[in-house]
């Protein structure tokens, strides 16, 4: 029978440490950890072989079948604590206190694979944007994502929530030298631009391709623009001046899916 220790004080050192990690990316990076909130993220991480160090369960959720199954599947080395519901709500930034929180090791960077599509993300600052891009990448079949050192912490709680488990289906390369990675990629290198010379829908995306997306305000840097093979625009017949970077990335990724599926159907 697994031992579960009850914690009820915000002054407890374990709780204070958890709260610091939830709030400060520098501490998470330094300690090589991430904090997961909610049963879905915890289960997805566990299924992917994640390393759990500490698990904090909302006391009210202990009888829940999903929670009990997850706790039973944890390695013996993982420490489990039950939190008073009020304390759980105080520690988490979520509007509704989660059933479970977990302190896990950040996954080690996996070696880059021979891939036919990759994403390069330069200085993406909004956690929601980054998480949505990762979710779209995983859904569209992309596995390799390179992030510049200027990106928001890819394992921050907000990015993890927005990614909905996508992190555990991707090879995430943090603090990557995007210029070097782009120059070494042998396929087509694409940057989206409002001044792009051709439409996204006229660009052949059935070949190996690297998509580059930049900062919400500044866009893609001149250095990366300079080595791109093409600058493509997303047609916008309406009145909007531009698209959110996460929406632009999603459109590009799924236009690639559409083209490749159409090619397969044509061949068949």
Structure description:
With about 270 residues, the chain is an alpha/beta fold. The chain folds into 2 domains: about 100 residues, 60s Ribosomal Protein L30, Chain: A (2-Layer Sandwich), CATH 3.30.1330.30; about 150 residues, Alpha/beta knot (3-Layer(aba) Sandwich). It has 10 helices and 12 strands. α6 links the parallel β6 and β7. α3 runs parallel beside α4 and α6 runs parallel beside α10. The model has no long low-confidence stretch (mean pLDDT about 90).
In short:
With 268 residues, the protein is α/β, with parallel strands linked by helices. The protein has 10 helices and 12 strands.
Q: Level of helix content?
A: 25-40%
CATH architecture type of the largest domain? 3-Layer(aba) Sandwich
CATH topology of the largest domain: Alpha/beta knot
How would you state the average pLDDT, rounded? Answer: 92
The secondary-structure element order is: EHHEHEHEHEEHEHEHEEEHEH
Number of H/I helices: 10
Topology, pairings included?
Layout (H helix, E strand, L loop, with lengths): L3 E4 L5 H11 L1 H7 L1 E5 L1 H9 L4 E7 L6 H9 L5 E5 L1 H7 L8 E6 L11 E5 L5 H14 L3 E4 L9 H7 L7 E3 L4 H7 L3 E5 L5 E2 L9 E5 L8 H6 L2 E4 L11 H23 L1
Parallel strand pairs: 1-4, 3-4, 6-7, 6-11, 7-8, 9-11, 9-12, 10-12
Antiparallel strand pairs: 2-5, 3-5
Helix pairs in contact: 3-4, 6-7, 6-10
């Amino acid at each position: 029978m697994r031992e579960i220790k009850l914690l009820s004080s915000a002054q407890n050192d374990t709780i204070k440490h958890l709260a610091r990690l939830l709030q400060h990316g520098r501490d998470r990076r330094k300690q090589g950890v991430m904090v997961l909130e909610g049963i879905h993220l915890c289960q997805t991480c566990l299924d992917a072989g994640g390393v759990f160090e500490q698990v904090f369960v909302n006391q009210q959720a202990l009888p829940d079948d999903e929670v009990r199954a997850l706790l039973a599947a944890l390695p013996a080395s993982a420490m489990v604590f039950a939190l008073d519901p009020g304390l759980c709500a105080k520690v988490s930034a979520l509007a509704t206190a989660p059933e479970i929180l977990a302190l896990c090791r950040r996954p080690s960077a996996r070696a880059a694979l021979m891939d036919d599509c990759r994403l390069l993300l330069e200085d993406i600052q909004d956690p929601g944007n980054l998480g949505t891009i990762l979710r779209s990448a995983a859904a569209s079949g992309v596995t390799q994502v390179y992030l510049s050192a200027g990106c928001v912490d890819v394992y921050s709680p907000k990015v993890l929530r927005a990614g909905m488990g996508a992190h555990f289906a991707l090879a995430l390369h943090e603090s990557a030298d995007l210029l070097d990675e782009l120059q070494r990629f042998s396929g087509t290198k694409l940057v989206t631009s409002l001044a792009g010379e051709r439409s996204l829908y006229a660009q052949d995306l059935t070949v190996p391709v690297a998509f580059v997306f930049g900062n919400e305000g500044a866009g893609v840097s001149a250095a990366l623009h300079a080595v791109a093979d093409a600058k493509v625009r997303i047609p916008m017949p309406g009145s909007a001046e531009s698209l959110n970077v996460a929406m632009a990335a999603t459109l590009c990724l799924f236009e690639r899916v559409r083209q490749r599926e159409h090619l397969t159907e044509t061949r068949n």
